[in-house]
Amino acid sequence: MRTHTPRQRLGQGKRRHLLPLYFMMIPGGIYLIINNYIPMTGIVMAFKRYNFKTGVYMSPNVGFDNFKFLFATKDAWVITRNTIGYNLVFIVLGTVLAITVAILLGELRSQLAKKAYQTVILIPFLISIVIVSYLVYAFLNTENGFINNSILAPLGRKTVSWYSSPQYWPFILVLVNIWKGLGYNCILYYATLVGIDREYYEAAVIDGASRWQQVCHITLPCLKSTIVILTLMSIGGIFYSDFGLFYQVPMNQGALLDVTNTIDTYVYRGLMQSSNLGMTAAAGLYQSFVGFVLVVAANLAVRKIDPDSALF
Amino acid sequence: MTAKERAFQIAAHGVLCLLAMFCLLPFLLLLSSSVTAENSLIRYGYSFFPREIDLAAYRYLLVDSGSIVRGYLISALVTVCGTALNLLLTALFAYPLSRKDLPKRNLFAFFLFFTMLFHGGLVPTYIMWTQAFHIKNTLAALIVPNLLMNAFNVIMMRTYIAANVPDAVIEAARIDGAGEFRILWQIVLPMSLPIVATLALLSGLGYWNDWLNGLYYISDDRLFSIQVILNRLLTKTEMLKQASSAGASMGPLPTVGIKMAVAVLGALPVLAVYPFFQRYFVKGIAIGAVKG
Questions:
Q1: How many Å lie between the alpha carbon of A88 and the closest alpha carbon of chain B?
Q2: What confidence tens digit (pLDDT) does each residue in A252-265 have?
Q3: pTM for this one?
Q4: DSSP class of B60
């Protein structure tokens, strides 16, 4: 007893002075519970026939019917293909371009030019996707658009009705995504790149290594863990899409749906039409669940190969 | 510099210049089209150089139509309040997590981190906000859902504090009798200004550019933020005519130019503020990247 009391009191005293730290987390904790955790319980909707009167939790159960209906539609395949397909292209192309530009930036001699380029390529990142859709509209609008009026017409080519020609949109969407995201991704890699010890390069130069060899044997290996982390995060998000890019930029045109409909736009349209909320919720759960499995699996794989790069 | 090196530098500048132009040219098209006279736009379409300068679109938007100015005010209000609240919640959650002596720290960290891994999805979220919290058509709808706190930002801040505020400093302040709130406010935050500035920027950008909350939860046109107005205008120029105040007597509405003018007005505040924050921004993203 005697030996315990002082230690206990010390322990309690410690706890007590730490109490304010727990208080601090209360507002954020409440917010996360409301904004994130309560909607998670709403995934039960995917197994119910939603009834406005009885609410989410009391609606009748229908088992996996919503999923059966969802996967019986052609939409399920289209939205999955589009979401994953675009994301894969974005990840591969985006990463390669961002690293290339970051390396070029790093090789520049002029500090002023480095700053200037960094500033400029980040600008598209700052603009909301709504404004991006105006920019795209200025180029592609059928009557007044720049491409039809100032490029195709003077060349004597037939003008294109862009917003009803789905064959062009995979390229347009990839271009827009790269345009908007390149600067940000590039800065992420550049930040790692400037942290690399210059001595490696000096030693390599003394050994007669060419610039290409330096990139392959110093820069890229040093960027590896950043590449892995960012790619891992993108893979975790491969079932999610930038709603604005796929809904707003193509101006919600029905003719383009086949190449612009992703899980997110599908869920939004389902929600707005309120036609079958259960099925819409099923699509949402399908997205959350597969996304979750993917990020955990990707992380597991990385932890096997290179434990230091794993996210958790 | 050797000849080879010089050739490389020139080539690198060439590539990066092209890239910079690729990034900037769309804005030039937007700006130029917004100041071009309406009939010239109808005849020749949007172009990089105005053939006939005319500010009618801006005059209309800023003088005759009250909705744009109102949208600006709403956006500004939401951005300021939202960013302040966001920073407060983020700091209050991040600081305790940065303390190595906090029992059950990992439990709270996981509680936070899990929100990045799994999402309830739009449908339950929408139903909760609209039916349990009756958030439709309130200012809170533009501030609270989704944007108030973000696990990634909290993790960034926690990492920064843990790496840059030595335990000894906090311990010393505690021995001098400072409470935890005071330590956070007077010691930890001032020592973490770079990350605070970065998160303020990211959060402010998030609020200013947000149009999703407006799309989901706002149908009352008095609460339209600038992005929501932009979003609606793109497909419905009709809305402008209705929204314009009765006194507009300047002939036909410049509908073609006005779309570009309103987009310029939406982008302008961000572009105007950006140069001042540019330094923090690049540095801040760098901090986030070094193991966020």
A1: 19
A2: 888 888 999 999 99
A3: 0.87
A4: I
